[in-house]
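Notebook B, p. 112. Complex prediction, attempt 2.
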Amino acid sequence: MEQINAGDTAWILVATALVMVMTPALAFFYGGMVRKKNLLSTINLSFISIGLISIQWILIGYTLAFGTSVNGLFGGLDFLGLSGVGSEPNADYAATIPHLAFAAYQMMFAIITPALITGAFVERIRFKAFLIFTLLWATFVYDPVAHWVWGVGGILRTRGALDFAGGTVVHITAGFSALAFAIVLGKRKWYGQTTMEPSNIPFTVLGAGLLWMGWFGFNGGSALAANGLAVNAVVTTNTAAAAAAVVWMFLSWRDNKPSVLGIVTGAVVGLVAITPAAGFVTPLAAIAIGAIAAPVSFYAIRLRQKWGLDESLDVWACHGMGGTWGALATGLFATTTVNSAGFDGLFYGNPNQLLIQAAAVAVSIVFSFGMTFVLTKLVNVFTPLRVTENEEEVGLDISEHGERAFA
Amino acid sequence: MTKKIEAIFREEKLDDVKKALYSIGIVGMNVTEVRGHGRQGGITLSGRTGTYQVDFLPRVQLNIILSDHNVEKTINTIQQAAQTGNIGDGLIFVYPVDEVIRIRTGERGHDALAYEGDIDTRQEVAMAGVA
């Protein structure tokens, strides 16, 4: 039995808190981009996810993701209700920290992932349908994919797919689920015919800033130890965010003036793209990963607009496509000089890794898109996904919550 | 006869207009923020990717109630202070006012509008000087 390491445990506790704050940060990031009448509703979609998924994770989520593998597809029920998950280490996942610390840290990832999807359906989603969808999605999409990629015996992990902190598990699944949800739900009233101005861009900047900080816990904590690998992950994370923010600034500058909303979006996209790579690549590679992530998501937004699809806050473009680029970039830039437990990528003489990454991306896209499509259709049979036209016009703050953001 | 001047102009010109009005003896006024557009339509703002059009632009609406004979001078003052020469500078409207009642005292008409040192009393003092 390994020994508990106090430094590792302290860092994972801090990282857990950092990742927790990312969900309220996301609430502000999204909230600032909607109209005033939907500000509280949008913020709440993220916030209530902390409540919902915390409970789901303890009861069933953790064991479905990290229980003893059932054919590599999902975790068995040995950790149901976190039974047996306590202060002892766990050889598979938490060699030097209490197993419970690992479960708590992973809980924060499980929380933010469905919260990311909410950007797709703001300003028209029925709250009741959202609650049901989120619980189903966490149980039938997030938990299995987390098992595939991170669980011992998981189908993607055993095939050598690299995902340091959740580029595939978190960002690709959220992004492509958002795409499916938006297709099923349909556009907001007057979408494309009237300007839907962001009501509070400073909120979005605040949210992006807190996301950036929280991401040090998200990626740095994924080393699961207070060591050089954690440091590498923190530095690559900061570097990629910086590069993407600067590149996005220039991209938006070409059309008009350098947009602040664009700059902070770029930062988030850089953070998304470095997520799978953070513990496998060098800081120099992180510059390239962030710099390329910006145009990938920028043009994905343009494409989405051309389709006339109201995937309202561009979860697909930023997280789905940013995450896809990050997962592929891991197959290009990964090097065992950074992480001996990883693999070399294409640029270090191992083209096979890129193929493995591409396969993992494809499987995750097809599964999350397909499952979300089915789940949304299913929920819609029992309770409508959308508010009525009149409720949408009034705004969800009043019609769904009976409150308003400002008096 | 009492009139109301309603001037809609650029928000960034509010301080200039206010100062100019004080200097000619306009004491009371109120301001509301309004959004609108005239012939120039909207403006283009930067978005995440590319630009978008905003139809209704922020302007301030300044209301002044005053005596008939001060209207021209006041209008000219506002017009000069609020002007940039670019499209979108705004408009000034003048309306007749039937009655004015000061809530504190119940005074009506001219009495309800009079303040010490305002544009009317200045004029009266000036005329007394001429006589």
